[in-house]
Design goal:
228 residues; Four Helix Bundle (Hemerythrin (Met), subunit A); 2 domains; 3-stranded antiparallel beta sheet; two-stranded antiparallel ribbon
Length: 228
Amino acid sequence: MEDNMSFQEDETLRLYVEESLEHLSNIENDLLAIEKDGADINEELVNKVFRAAHSIKGGAGFMGLDNIKELSHKMENVLGMVREREMVPNPEIVNILLLASDTLRNLLKNVEESNTMDISSHVEALIALTVDVAPKKGKKKVSDDVDISLAPGETLFTVSRKDISSARKKGFFIYIVKLDLIRDEGVSDMTPMDFINKIQESGNLFDCRIDVDAVGNLKVIPCLKGCP
């Protein structure tokens, strides 16, 4: 995060933290219910938890909260495999998700220090789950990434190859959207979090960041999403 960004003074950051903590408010009960269902998954419940992680990830990318973004993305990957019935949510898997969600909540409650906090053990545990399952399905490791560029040598995003493959299999189109929240018609009255929430409603937001170097302020937001 920028050194001059204060949680008390930045309304957008405060709203993001409040919304994210609301997403996590019932996650423990939801995960335990998912574990109880086992292979007979409740798709609505799994999707609820998946969307919570997905929403937190999207906002974190906009805010430059790298650890929150990484941890929520790794949780999203595991939940996505549960949702697609590629992984049965046994007690070990659910425990790893519960520990990660507790750490994610702690990162959000200490948002100004979140980028310096150690999340490596949780990230490694979540990656191990997806890597363990992928070879059994004859797939590439989900940790393999692909660079998204508009011009040679200009990498805008590095995203999971699995995310791209999954979107294509579902018939989604993949877009790179570059938006000026002040000047672009139709969004000038929206807060940054309104924009993030709106774009996530229309598809799967792979990544999002602020292009500070391009404009010298915080108004232009490139984002990458897949949608039908």
